Amino acid sequence: MNTGLEGKYVLKNNKKLALGYTTGSCAAAAAKAATIMLLSKKSISQIDILTPKGITLHLEILEATLENGVASCAVKKYSGDDPDVTNGKLVYAKVSLGENTKERKILIDGGIGVGRITKPGLEQPIGAAAINRVPRKMITDAVIEVMEEYDYYGEIFVEISIPEGVELAKKTFNPRLGIEGGISVLGTSGIVEPMSEEALIASIRLEMQMHRNNGAEYLVISPGNYGTTYLSKNFRVDLEKAVKCSNYLGETIDMAVEMKYKGILFVSHIGKFIKAAGGIMNTHSRCADSRMEILTANALRAGAPLELLKEILEAVTTDEGLAVLKQHGYLETTMKYIMEKIEFYLNNRAYQNLELATLVFSNEFGELGRFGDVEGLLRKTNAWGEETI
Q1: Is the Cα dihedral 10, 87, 125, 109 positive or negative?
Q2: Which of 50, 58, 76, 220 could anchor a disulfide with 242, C-beta 3.0 to 4.6 Å?
Q3: Which domains does the chain have, with CATH numbers?
Q4: Percent of the chain beyond pLDDT 90?
């Protein structure tokens, strides 16, 4: 059946990527269908729902039941070309009537597979189901539309469940963010666009804002797993409170300034952070890959001869280039110049509004360089334990 997304796509790297619809849209559609069944006593196989983006979806209703005053319907999540763990999973809405009143009132909760908020700083209060504001409004609007059609006043209870959500949550950041027992029902537009930079940056912002709301004034940040692994091996830190910024170094600094953080400690593998020595604030290889050029330029400043510089330029990995420098005695001086450049560009991006420190390492050579008061800044973060080296 046609869903309303036929012919709709986004262009990314010159490829057409299909749109999908969010868990929030699924929940609202299932709730609308179940309310129709409850009030009309008739079965339903398809439902239309208008998304906040302005696209009307035509969604198939699955596993519809009506018994003992409870209607239940499911909608299958479709993520388009977005690599989403929820793709193909069923989102259920179970609807029942409450007290007859003179007002229309929708009470929304989460069932199995929908997480619960366990930490402050998120959109919903502690103890609430992890159903975000926009999906809640979509569900409410959809149910009220049906209540108006059938001239019904009173309370309606809506329980959203995603049975596979308990296992799916283990593949998400939810436990780290303080959402336990399942996944979140998300979406701001009702439509899934294949994972954009904006979506990735928004997820980093969410985590940073959560820490800020919980009183953090300083952050430990690494681009990815290499950094957190190094932290766990060399410092006694709570990795739950260390933020991963992926490739978005510049945006992360911008957000920290905006949120009025006081400082950041960056811990990163040289393969990512050497790009910062060239003023590159998005470290994804498709944006810029000047690792060897930057390494070579700083080796030149360190006095390395021409033949050695050519050898570094031909290296495939930073570790290979570092090995050449180490073998000929230029590694320490080269890293000194690289750290000076990293310090300059990071402080320039922060407009001197943050206390910054950085530790750069390689898996083969260990710590390569640092600037700023690494241990002192780490102690100021909420991730601080005791140093183990």
Answers
A1: positive
A2: 220
A3: 9-192 (3.30.2110.10), 206-380 (no CATH)
A4: 76
